[in-house]
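Field log, afternoon session.

UNIT: design team B
ACTIVITY: writing a sequence onto a fixed backbone
BACKBONE:
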């Protein structure tokens, strides 16, 4: 029985961890390229969850078809938000920039509360009901779908960053923005693109989470904290670190829940982050930037 619970926690944790890794990848991309501590990423996730809910409930479409509406909208919003709003805060002191980002998170959260109330909403995909069983391990179809979508987007992100001109330009901006500008790159525009991609990652994570758990405004702050925690644990500025951190946090949360100690999950995660920060401040995987 004990081993069965451990196996369930591991499998469910890996699937959840992929979604958390996507959140952290978006956070790290904004931090590395645009030099923005993107606390508002939690609000982007929340609004993507609401967007998925309304595409499903009002249009009658499958929730995962919302990706063709939610993801492009999130990219455009993230791009414009940086180009015409966030960039103005970057001429101020670093603590002011952090306060601005937190203020934007709170504003977007309360805007969601004003528009949608505090009532919890749920998305139910009819063809994702049921579970797949591998011996003692039972995995919900919704978990498999969420993990699969997150994995596909993470793979696309890796390909884009490693194999395309855009990825090389983003790397150049992250490593040496002054040198990138001298070489002819439009650093300001690339920073806005990075913020757009960060919002896109957040929107896909929000879409996946919408099928797994209830939707209500207070989720925004929770997801922002989780993105930061996963990023710090895995390694700030590292995509591999985001994936490793996401998988570790996902396994811890899912295993604790499977064993009936769900309330302890957050405490264990924060304790692990604190210990990691003391022993290895750069995180489990050090970024190659800089």
């Amino acid at each position: 029985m004990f081993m069965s619970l451990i196996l369930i926690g591991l499998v469910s944790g890996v699937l959840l961890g992929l979604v958390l890794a996507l959140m952290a990848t978006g956070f790290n991309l904004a931090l590395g390229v645009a030099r923005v501590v993107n606390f508002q990423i939690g609000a982007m996730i929340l609004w993507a969850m609401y967007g998925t809910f309304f595409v499903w409930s009002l249009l009658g479409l499958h929730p995962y078809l919302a990706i063709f509406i939610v993801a492009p909208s999130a990219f455009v919003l993230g791009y414009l938000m940086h180009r015409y709003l966030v960039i103005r805060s970057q001429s101020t002191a670093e603590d002011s920039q952090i306060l601005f980002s937190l203020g934007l998170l709170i504003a977007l959260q309360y805007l969601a509360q004003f528009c949608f109330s505090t009532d919890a909403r749920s998305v139910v995909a009819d063809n994702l009901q049921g579970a797949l069983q591998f011996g003692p391990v039972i995995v919900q179809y919704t978990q498999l779908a969420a993990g699969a979508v997150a994995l596909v987007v993470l793979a696309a992100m890796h390909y884009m960053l490693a194999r395309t001109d855009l990825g090389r330009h983003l790397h150049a901006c992250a490593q040496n923005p002054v040198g990138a500008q001298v070489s002819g790159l439009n650093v300001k525009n690339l920073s806005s693109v990075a913020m757009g991609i960060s919002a896109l990652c957040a929107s896909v994570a929000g879409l996946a989470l919408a099928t797994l758990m209830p939707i209500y405004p207070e989720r925004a702050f929770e997801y922002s904290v989780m993105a930061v925690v996963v990023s710090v644990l895995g390694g700030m500025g590292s995509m591999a670190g985001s994936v490793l951190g996401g998988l570790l946090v996902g396994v811890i949360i899912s295993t604790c829940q499977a064993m009936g100690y769900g309330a302890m999950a957050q405490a264990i995660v924060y304790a692990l982050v604190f210990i990691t920060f003391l022993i290895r401040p750069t995180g489990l995987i050090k970024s190659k930037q800089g």
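LOG NOTE: The CA atoms of residues 158 and 239 lie 8 Å apart.
NEXT ACTIVITY: expression trials, pending approval
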